[in-house]
Amino acid sequence: MEFIIAILAGVLFATGVYNLLQKQLLRIAIGTGLISHAAHLFILTMGKLKRGQPPIIVDNVTNYTDPLPHALILTSIVISFGVTSVVLVLAYRTINENKTDNMEQLRGNEYE
């Protein structure tokens, strides 16, 4: 199962990088979102699913679950939400000010 999730994370990383290299700002924003989702899956895959008791110290319990991957994924979700929000606001503002979303036209030429 972890192998399939790792492949899915790789496909999401590849698709996100492909979208980041496009000329339209919306595709760049979608690429950042896909890369953040791929990072969530990657963290989940590396943390593995461990079955056991909650991480509370009790007598006669030796098999505990690890809460760190879940905490890292929740932190990553919050950070990716913030990054995606900033990218979308900047893209919206850029499109309204410059009347284009094409990165080649936004770059200008050497005389400007």
Q: Could you outline the blueprint of secondary structure elements for this entry?
A:
Elements: H1 2-20, H2 25-47, H3 68-98, H4 103-107
Helix pairs in contact: 1-2, 2-3
Structural write-up:
The protein has 112 residues and is mainly α. The protein is 70% helix and 0% strand. It has 4 helices and no strands. The chain has helices spanning 2-20, 25-47, 68-98, 103-107. Helix 1 (2-20) packs antiparallel against helix 2 (25-47) and helix 2 packs antiparallel against helix 3 (68-98). The N and C termini lie far apart (54 Å). The model has no long low-confidence stretch (mean pLDDT 87).
Helix % is: 55-70%
Category by helix and strand content: mainly alpha
Largest sheet: none
Sheet-strand content, in percent, reads: under 5%
- Give the low-pLDDT segments: none
What is the ordering of alpha helices and beta strands? HHHH
Give the helix tally: 4
Whole-number mean pLDDT: 87
- The best one-word shape is elongated
Cα gyration radius (Å): 20 Å
Terminus-to-terminus distance: 54 Å
Number of strands: 0
Offer a quick outline of the entry:
The chain has 112 residues and is an all-alpha fold. It has helices at residues 2-20, 25-47, 68-98, 103-107. It is elongated.
Key phrases:
single chain, 112 residues, mainly alpha, elongated
